[in-house]
Structure formats: structure tokens, C-alpha cells
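pinging the channel bc i need a second pair of eyes. not urgent but kinda urgent?? the chain im working w is below, pasted from the shared doc
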Amino acid sequence: ATTYLASLTPILAQLRALGRRVAEDNKRSKGKVAERRAEVDESRLRLQNLEYERSQLEGEIRRCKEFVSVFQDIELRDLSEFQAVAPEELRTEQILSDPHSLMLARLEYELIERQQ
């Protein structure tokens, strides 16, 4: 029986060593999984933040497009008449090529006319 136990001792030591190695590998693997999980969670959070920001920007764009300005109700001279009678500084090529600048120039001309 003693010789039998003596022959099992090296095998038992090998099994314990293998058990420790498996436990260490398992611990390392769990650490790697935890790191990857943290990366995925961080990426998911960034994605959610970007999706929220996108929806907010889309909402702002929609509100801007739906915005009704009082300037839309002001009756201005039509464009051809404006181009014919407005002062030269209000109808430069740069102003006429930009819709926003053109609207500002037409409003400015309307104000000048009303003040006279």
C-alpha cells in the first residue's frame, strides 16, 4: 500500500500543478473577458450618446425647417422690381447670388422706402 501511495504521489503532484495552471488560465481568461466587456460597454455607451445627439440634431433641423418667420409675411417688391429700383450697394452680384443676403437686402430696401 505504501509503495502504491508512493507511486501516486508524483501523479497527484502533477494533477495539483495542472489544477493550478487551469485556475491561473481561467483567471487570466476571465480578466481578458472583463476587459473586452468593458470595451464593448464603452463602445455601446458612445453609440447611444451619438444616437441621442443625432436625434437631438434631427429634431433641431426639423424645428428650423418648420419655423415660420414674420419676415415671410412681409410683402416685399418682387425680385425683378427690386433689381430695377434698389440702390446698387443692395444688389451686388454677391448679394443676388446668396438667398439669405438677398432677403436681408430686400428687407433693408423696404425699411428705407417706409422711412421716406
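so Residues 70-116 form one domain. and The chain has a mean pLDDT of 93. — does that match what u expected or am i reading it wrong
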